[in-house]
Specification:
about 65% helix; 2 domains; three-stranded antiparallel β-sheet; rod-shaped; mainly alpha; 3 strands
Length: about 130
């Protein structure tokens, strides 16, 4: 589960990077088009275009900031989920993990029905136990 969360986190970071770069490229193209139009327009239109360009830049900064902030929040959330799913943290909270001889988890008495021994993992070590069915 931890590995899946890490993979998901990496994929989300890649998607964030790709979308951000696409957004920046799109806005750079728009800015280039506006700059080209400014060269051919009268002074009044130049002033208006500069204002529009400035507004677009500010909007782009806000959009990028909000997008990054949202992505950071998601990454923090996934990191917390990853930490919560970490078996070591579960052990630190007082739980243990019990496995059969093959290393499969024993989650209920049904799982222990036909086994002769098991290993229980604690935060500070393990204990091997023999099972007596009766």
């Amino acid at each position: 589960m931890l590995k899946a969360r890490r993979t998901s986190l990496k994929e989300n970071a890649f998607v964030l990077q790709t979308k951000t770069l696409g957004l920046i490229k799109n806005h750079h193209q728009r800015l280039a088009s506006i700059a080209e139009a400014l060269v051919r327009t009268p002074a009044v239109r130049i002033k208006a275009s500069r204002k529009l360009l400035s507004d677009h830049q500010e909007n782009l900064k806000k959009i990028i900031y909000l997008h990054l902030q949202n992505s950071r929040t998601k990454i923090n959330h996934y990191q917390k989920l990853s930490q919560m799913a970490d078996p070591q943290n579960t052990l630190k909270r007082g739980f243990s993990i019990t496995r059969n001889q093959e290393g499969h988890l024993i989650r209920s008495i049904k799982d222990a029905k036909d086994i002769k021994s098991m290993t229980t993992q604690f935060v500070d070590g393990t204990i091997d136990s023999e099972i007596k069915h009766g």
